[in-house]
Amino acid sequence: xxxLYQVSAALILCTFSLPSTGSxxxxxxxxxxxxxxxxxxxxxxxxxxxxxxxxLDEDKRLRMNYAPGFALSVELGEVDxxxxxxxxxxxxxxxxxxxxxxxxxxxxxxxxxxxEMGESGYVRTSVAARLPVLxxxxxxxxxxxxxxxxxxxxxxxxxxxxxxxxxxxxxxxxVTNTSIYLKSGIEKKLSVGYSRPVWGEYxxxxxxxxxxxxxxxxxxxxxxxxxxxxxxxGDVIEDEYDRNLVSTTALGMDFGLVWLEENYAVGLSxxxxxxxxxxxxxxxxxxxxxxxDSAERNSCEVTRFFVAQGRLRDRETHTKNALLRxxxxxxxxxxxxxxGSLDLAAYDDAVGFENQWLHLATAYESRRxxxxxxxxxxxxxxxxxxxxxxxxxxxxxxxxxxxxxxxLASITVEDTSVPRRVGFAIGFEETF
Length: 432
Known about the structure:
The chain has helices at residues 2-15, 30-33, 52-55, 82-94, 103-120, 233-240, 295-308, and strands spanning 62-65, 69-76, 122-130, 133-140, 144-161, 166-168, 173-175, 179-199, 204-224, 246-260, 264-271, 277-279, 317-319, 323-331, 336-343, 347-348, 354-355, 357-364, 373-381, 388-396, 400-407, 410-413, 416-419, 421-428. The protein is 17% helix and 45% strand. The protein is α+β, with helices and mostly antiparallel strands. It has a single domain (2-281, 316-428), classed as Porin (Beta Barrel). It has a 14-stranded antiparallel barrel, surrounded by 4 helices. A two-stranded antiparallel sheet has the order 6-7. Strand 10 and strand 11 form a beta hairpin.
């Protein structure tokens, strides 16, 4: 299990190698309640701009985040002992005498394992960070309600591109084109939002709009196992993830509506309505310009090999497709809510995973310094890997939020069952 933790830790460390300090992780209490129309969560308005008016209480003109916020999620593919088997294979390729098994036994075992790795093996880490003060909401009675926010999100994913393992009798060594495929996306987004009621006085229809300046750094690279020179997978991730990094800046537009009643709120939001696009750097291009027999040349040529098989693209553009989401909150009492949200279509994230999230939760807001607020949630990805997880959270001392996530599906690593998805969030947000 040590190797699995090392790979996950290396992916997490990659996301901190930023000039300053994606993903789509929900921050603060919204980590559990999801992007619902819950006015108690400071972050509900970061997904639906119409909620800017709802998160500001009637007698308040200002609401903010007190301290930095942080959220993390790690997801594993459905392959038992994935990282450990991969590290063992790297050692065998580097030195065929490092094992007592015969070549035929190793070929039988690892060709089965490689096929499984290529189909289902991956490690994916997502991180979201918030700066102090932001998001900031403020009200101008004669104009409307405004928000300013700066978010940092990152996704890093490791997959395996599998190829048959063979044994060369002359050199008594194992040979394969099997490679590590690493993709990363680091997003910094500055947002300015506006909302105001457009109909009604007590029961209200509120509309909102947000303009986002998005900088997205995208990277992908392929590294052959036989070029790892005895390094473990976690070390390769730390050394190689930022190679071929390309930065693109574009504008995105979000729109939202929310119907506010005394006992419930129902919202509809459209994220990235203009579908901004971002580029990856080309891979597998001009291999002849690299030094012959170098790791860089081998990486380029094996990339070209997998491109020819149709398993990856040499030139790629990521599009943030327009996403329509429905959300709502029902008040069982003045402080006890049932929350839900649903992405109405599937979409690909920056590292190529398909997403369509359903969130369901219940939460109690104490509004007292010494009495914790609590929340319980369930989330499920209706697309892609279709993983589900439970989450729980507390708000302590009137603002400190602590939330955890535990996946319902598991894999086995060294005879120990571990969840395929885990995560946590911590923040300190102003409540009302």
